[in-house]
Structure formats: structure tokens, C-alpha cells
Amino acid sequence: MSFHTVADTAPATSRAAAVELPLVIDGHNDLAWACREHHGYRVDGVGTGLPDLHTDLPRLRAGRVGGQFWSVWVDDETLHGAEQVTATLEQIDFVHRLAARYPDDLRLARTAAEARQAMRSGRIASLIGVEGGDQIDESLGVLRSYARLGARYMTLTWAQTIPWADSSTDEARSNGLSDFGREVVAEMNRIGMLVDLAHVSDATMSDALDVSTLPVLVSHSGARALCDHPRNVPDELIRRIGATGGVHMVAFVPSFVSQARRDWVVGGEHGEPPTVTVADVADHIEHVRDLAGVDAVGIGADYDGTGSMPHGLDDVSGYPRLLAELAGRGWSHADLDKVAHENVLRVLEASDPNHLTFLAGER
What we know:
By secondary structure, this protein is of the alpha/beta class. It has 14 helices and eleven strands.
């Protein structure tokens, strides 16, 4: 089943001005933490508009968002141990309160079927992803508790290496996954929680692909061949993700998608930043498709998890411009469906039976 609508925002190219575009399920949005930091965890402003943030309901509607994995992230540089667990539970509570406050616009979804049902009803399917394995405080019981509360993926690390998994932006400790890290991945498979490989080191990514018996996702990263950033995925691992049925969801973060922007950041950010555009993001999407196939690529922007965004993708209203850009490059309706929502729903659906069995109390 596909979910289409005709774009009525300014397209990236006149060739696609009236193209029929699918609804988007985005893999990663940090609204929960942004509202913690700037709005005291209040949800009421989300419905009317939050001009200081990238995300609110009017712009989600303008952006044709049909589903969103809301990231529940914790700053592990300032919060530790049980503090992280508490903050994660607060983030999950925010997502539940948000959906309850706007029942005509949002619907909590745990499975692909529930996400599709929400989209059919005209609501935005609201899913939950935990952004960082340190947030389980080395407890499989905490991991399972997050899953019972609706979390459907966990990113194995954030920016710091943790005792059982190495991050892409920190020094290695386990040369990938430790024995406990492998146990975490196996338990995630058992309970139907998707293994998210954004942020992790290449060795951690490889180890997780070795251990996981179910398709994985990368919720928000680019392609390293186009932009040499450690947060991006090398070609050989993009191919492995595709070969094992996973999905690589491309981020919009300027320093992930533009080498010129990355060089400007590394060089100290002197002068005006190089412009990053919709076309730069589309290049990463096409690179993943060319390496791993059209079934392996999705969208995970990282709105409200970073500062500036590419021109034309400044906030969550911009997705139609990206899809119009791809349409202008010759992407078919069927392939736009895949990148917009079908691929991530397929990966979610592959783990749904395990998750439902887990929720039913069976082992």
C-alpha cells in the first residue's frame, strides 16, 4: 500500500512541479529533547507552532509527514547511570503525552500495521527510538522495559564509546562489540527492537551485522564516500546493510552531506559556511541506492538534533522538495514510495512478530 499526495510546496525543480509524492516516515527527530531544553517538556505549543525549533504540527503537515520515529536521546556527557534511565523515561513520557494531546493528528504506533493504519486515518504514526545504548545502564531489564513502553529501535551508541560498544566519534574500547554488546543485539532481536547502527564505529557496525538475525537500520547517517565524516557509513557496510535486508536512512545534517561543509567545520568555521542544498542530500540517497539497491534507502533527517539544515530543507516542511528533486532525476512512483516509507516499514515489519510475541509475555 502506498500513500501519495500531490506536492503544493515549492519544488526543487520545475520538471516535478505537480508530481504525485508519497508521505514520508522519517527515521529520527529530536523534538523531545528540544522541548525539554527550550519549552520545559510542554507539548501544547507543538500544535500551534514552535518557530524556534525545526518541528511542529503545522510544518509536519506541510511536509507531508506520515510517520515519525521520535528520538528519545540523553546527553551522556552530563547524565550518567540511573540519571540516563530517568531522562529516557521522561522522553518516552513526552512522546506519549504529545500523541495524547493531539489525537486528531498523531497516533502512537508500535508495529508496521499500526503505522499504516495511522497513515490511512490521516494521522502521523508516532514511533519511538532510543538514541544510545548507554541509556540502558548495562541492564537488559531496562532495555526490555523501554520496549514495553513502545521503543522500537535503539541506537547502540551515541557520540561516546560505552563499555560494550565503540562509537564512531570516540576511541575504541572493545574493537567493536564486547561479549555483552553481542548479548544486547541478540536480545534486541528476540524482543523485536530494531538494531540502529547510526553513530557506531565501523567495527561495531560489522559485529552487529554478524550477530543480528534480523534486518538492521541506520536511522540518520550519510555515505562516507561522498563526505568523509566518521558518522557516515563506508561503501562496503552500506552494501552489507542492503544485502541483509536493512535500510540506511539518509540524514540531512550539512556536515554529513557536504564535503565542503565538513572541511569548513574541521577548519574552525571561519567565514561564511558553504551552502548545502537539497541536491546534496539527494546525491547521498542515490549513492546508497546505487550501492545497495532501492530497497535499502530511507530518510532520517535529524531535525532538532542539529543546528542549521540544507537550503530548502530548513525544517520539517521541506520533505516534498527532496522527493520532487528525486522525481526530477527520474525516480519512479514505486521507488519514491520505497525511499519515503515502504523500506523502513518493511524492516520494522520483519521484527514485528518478535515484538508482539514479547509483549504477549512469551519467550
